[in-house]
Amino acid sequence: DTGVSQDPRHKITKRGQNVTFRCDPISEHNRLYWYRQTLGQGPEFLTYFQNEAQLEKSRLLSDRFSAERPKGSFSTLEIQRTEQGDSAMYLCASSFLSNTIYFGEGSWLTVV
Amino acid sequence: GESVGLHLPTLSVQEGDNSIINCAYSNSASDYFIWYKQESGKGPQFIIDIRSNMDKRQGQRVTVLLNKTVKHLSLQIAATQPGDSAVYFCAEKDSGGYQKVTFGTGTKLQVIP
Fold it and tell me: Which of A108, B18, B31, B65 could form a disulfide with B52 if both were Cys (CB 3.0 to 4.6 A apart)?
């Protein structure tokens, strides 16, 4: 499968712990996006990279959230001091320039 | 219409009939529109897209219509099958250089066998 890959698919963590999600985009896609989705809602944009540069950040991305794409390939999204409100599915997507944006299967986070 | 919280608009269609899912957008500056299908527990799956210089685009069993005058987008699915049951989202991208795609309220499609 050469689609967008996300890991882990499911994560249960205690409130206050840090979690990190990894995304491997489709090969040669230079743009990478992170979204968050809660039950019954559409995905909400968090941030976007072109190669290794983080070019857009949503106001949803509080200072507890940090995303990196150090070599312009895979990306990580870290959430520090998790809160129950962070429980959601975190989606990664990639595209080549302004072409079609393809999503991964998401990483489910449950904060207990 | 608008949905609140967990109450997605739902469209129930008999297997074999055609489905039409509608979407209203508000940003006049949007120049690229996409329809995604999302099955339970999975990520959104690309179906079809259309740029603002077009008013119709066809794919396999799907057609997207764009009416920029009234800011309306629709997805038509021909000969709806049980495998089409999912939540469908329209999404739009601003022409102003921002790359984020903004999703609308989803519509749940239920196919009755």
Answer: B31
